[in-house]
Amino acid sequence: MAAAAVLMLSACGGKTMIESDMTRMVSASPASPWLTVENKNDTVLNVGGLPTSGKVQVSPDIASAVEAQLRTSLQPKYFTDLIIGCRDLKVGAAVTSDEPAMANLDLQVSCRIVARGKVVAKGYKVRQSQPVQPDAPHLDTLVPKLIDGASTQLADQLWAEVVATGVRR
């Protein structure tokens, strides 16, 4: 029994914390002081529904990764006097036991948009899903894909809200 446990731990690298480096994505995104996502320093994402504990250390942090993808998506659409500030970011992830198994990432955030004086404050919820093998989920690559996809969905919703203000670029 002990040998089987050692073998299983060695198969997954013996780590209880899986590292997911998103530094390149964050550093490659454009500088956009008009767009912020607060609640930085939340770096560990617990992934529920797996046979073993799924903890993913996101580097630099989850909010920075979300902010970077929002900047990348929204920078080309920017116009003067547009400010988007998001706070209270909450991210959760779980793997379903359905067939086929799906990894779901739920992202929730409150954002305030100021578009040339018009103000909209609203909460946003998005879900990104990907098929996964529960016995070998590859969380180090799966989590960045889910964060990237959820952030892109959020960017689309934020831009729809900007357009709904009626302000033209």
Please describe the structure with a list of short key phrases separated by commas or semicolons:
Double Stranded RNA Binding Domain; 33% helix; elongated; 169 residues; disordered N terminus; 36% strand; alpha/beta
Descriptive account of the structure:
With 169 residues, this protein is an alpha/beta fold. It has a single domain (15-164), classed as Double Stranded RNA Binding Domain (2-Layer Sandwich), CATH 3.30.160. 33% of the residues lie in helices and 36% in strands. It is built from 4 helices and 7 strands; from the N terminus they run αβαβββαβββα. The chain has helices at residues 2-11, 23-28, 62-74, 139-164, and strands at residues 17-21, 35-37, 44-48, 54-59, 82-95, 102-115, 118-131. Strands 1, 2, 3, 4, 5, 6 and 7 form a 7-stranded mixed sheet that branches. Strand 6 and strand 7 form a beta hairpin. The longest helix has 26 residues, at 139-164. It is elongated. The model is unreliable at 1-14 (pLDDT under 50).
Number of domains: 1
- Quaternary state reads single chain
Q: What's the main sheet like?
A: 7 strands, mixed
Poorly predicted runs: 1-14
- What percent of residues adopt helix (DSSP H or I)? 25-40%
Question: How would you sum up this structure in a few lines?
Answer:
The chain is of the alpha/beta class. It has helices at residues 2-11, 23-28, 62-74, 139-164, and strands spanning 17-21, 35-37, 44-48, 54-59, 82-95, 102-115, 118-131. The chain has four helices and seven strands; from the N terminus they run αβαβββαβββα.
